[in-house]
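Researcher: Good morning. I'm working through a list of sequences from a screen, and I'd like to move beyond sequence-only analysis. For each chain I'm collecting a predicted structure so we can compare shapes side by side. This is the next one on the list. No need for commentary yet; just the structure.
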Amino acid sequence: MTYPEIIAHIFQSFPMYHRIGSAAYKEGLENIEQLAVMAGNPEKKLKTIHIAGTNGKGSVAHLLASYFQELGCKTGLFTSPHLRDYRERIKINGKEIFEQQVIDFFEKYDPQLTKISPSFFEMTTILAFDTFANENVDIAIIETGLGGRLDATNILSPTLSVITNISLEHTQMLGNTLAEIAYEKAGIIKENTPVVIGEYNPETFPVFEQVAQEKNAPFFLAEEYTGNLQFGGDYQRKNIGTFLKCVEVIDEMMLKSQKTLTTKFTKNFHKEHKYLHINKFHVASFVLSLCPLWLNRFLKQQQPASLDEVVYMSIKNLYKNTGFMGRWQVIAEKPLTICDVAHNPAGIELIMKQLQALPHNHLHIILGFVNDKDIDKIIPLLPKNATYYACQATIERALPAEELFQKLSSANLNVFNLPDVLTAYKQATCNAQENDVVFIGGSFFVVGELLQGKLE
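Model: Good morning. Structure tokens for this chain:
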């Protein structure tokens, strides 16, 4: 079979959550355990960092991958979903795996896959683990798909677990409260394995703390080391300077790489929020400040001569190293045009604050969502003095553009009703003046179709 034939087979034969929703979700680890045995348990051959969370886990994963690449480690990266090509999910040193590797895997295992009948994500997970093991990567950065405890990636025994943050999403599968969702995410915490928690929340923190204590897992709360929360401890006394230097380096690089975009936002964010809602890159910087403690033990690497320089280069070369896309990605300068895959209330709220902080005359916001999002919770987060363009991606789960148009109109927002993503983009860029800002988001699929259309 050719690669296009394999991809068509994958999409037709394996239920995919991101396209059809909860009908594709398979609870439990039975399938992935069978798949692991089928492939010779590749997960046991890997050194990994395992990342869960509602928002920011992709950003943290890519930044960590860039960091280890700068150290000279052969680095695997597994994330989801993809924006343009299936192989974006599985990268080694920032390069998508070869088409032939996908073909070889399916030619070897297709009969067993048919018999086990895994979900799309379970099948892709074992493909990633198998490829990373065959390629003898030094470290693999693994992002969960949905939840944690019953996620297919959770057969790992990682070097480090990271939980970025928790907000209400996928409640029909993970629980109706933050504490219930935290319990599912806490499932990635393993015996005697360090875990980093990205932000403090009074509903979720006790859950993480209890699970970590039960597992005898060294427990780090990122906010504890920003100076905002004062819990004390040896790490804070010895390494607060290292962490804050990481933050400083990351901020410096963000300002240099996007100087016209983030200068005002970054300063206001730090002044207003004081890390109460810690920036996802600051979660990553905290993890980076810890990495030297584990390098010798797990990777048999020498500690970097200058952590500052490695972090600096990790950010400077983030896009080159990892092919990072769809997160505050600038796709045009005049008018300034940005896309981001934020798709839940917590993510949308942060993005809207960032947009409003940019210098601009007027905002043009292109939005499309999947049909299980609670739009009524998102609408109050949208700025009133913007022009909106309601659209829909070409997937089964897409919320009809007409329905989104009606909801935005009912909220007294100025909105156009467009049939698809590229038509909405053309309309917005036609309407926008040179000093306006255009934003595209609301869904991975909306951003994916935009990027695909612009590259064709």
